[in-house]
Design goal:
16% strand; 365 residues; alpha/beta
Amino acid sequence: MDRRSFIKKAGFAGAGAVAASTLAAPAIAQGNQTWRMVTTWPKNFPGLGVGAQRLGDRITAATGGRITVQVYSAGELVPPLQSLDAVIDGSAEMSHGAAYYWQNKNTGLSFFTGVPYGMTSRELTAWVRYLGGQEIWDEIYDQFGVQGFLSGDTGTQAGGWFRNELTGLDSVKGIRFRTPGLGGRVWEKLGATVTNMAAGEIFQALQSGTLDAAEFVGPYNDLALGFYQICKNYYFPSFVEPGLATELVVSKEKFQNLPADLQAIIKDVCQAEYDAVAADFAANDPRALQTLVNDHGVKVLPFPEEILEAGAKASLEIIQELRDSSDPLTKKTTESFISALNIVRQKTEGTDSPFIIAREKYFHL
């Protein structure tokens, strides 16, 4: 996809946001409601933006129109990184983004997107659905009058785009790197200067030299965003985002006022979309990577062992800091995450990983 045509379609212009802000409040007639979903993603953005739109459409269809979801892409109603605040202040009923974007509200939220050297996406869902994660997530969001649900899964992400090749820790010192969440804190410990910005802002920052490196998700998204036009060194895999999850956040009051069947539909559609987005990325990341390599001369590289080892050390330090946090919910979230990880990694490392190694070694069609 040509980046310029993609960005044009994405509708980043501020005029759209101004026009959208004049929209009337949600209509409620004969038991039917219109809910606004604001997102952090560009319009028609592969995997994530498409997934948000599909989630909204599925809720509308499954409820027979009793809830009609109007989806607004990044900047159409509110700036992308103000999506959660829009639900908190009542400007929207739903937001679609990533929980670690809001770590300034409570650091514990970062655990529900991705943790450096932490859970894969399959492990994360096990924690959230069956090992107490959802209940702790609810506690954190209760403070803000909202409720969160897992809504999408990118799988293990790419490590990022770098203007220059990485030869070791010394090559990380001082680079200006776009990367969010706890992963950003890891890279800071390694010597990078870290910032976060929305998807639609990254290319320009790379082009202008404001950034030396950036990571977003992986080939499927990164091809559309055009990073290959600036950087050619593409590192795999990410050791700070092993299994990223997106979230749907809803106004808790409005959600709890819904009949039980509509509450169940929203929960079930979120779970279905989590799996649908995972399949979308699994199918399209490899094909996008082939395009990046074959058509655009991108070099796929592994991180030097020195960086991987230092990243693991920094990750352990950060987890321990959070474990010792003075904030009770951050501490509680960290303890729950560690306990669950020690359970779920047994299957991943004892069953899944040995199979993958054996398949790679012996089975080629």
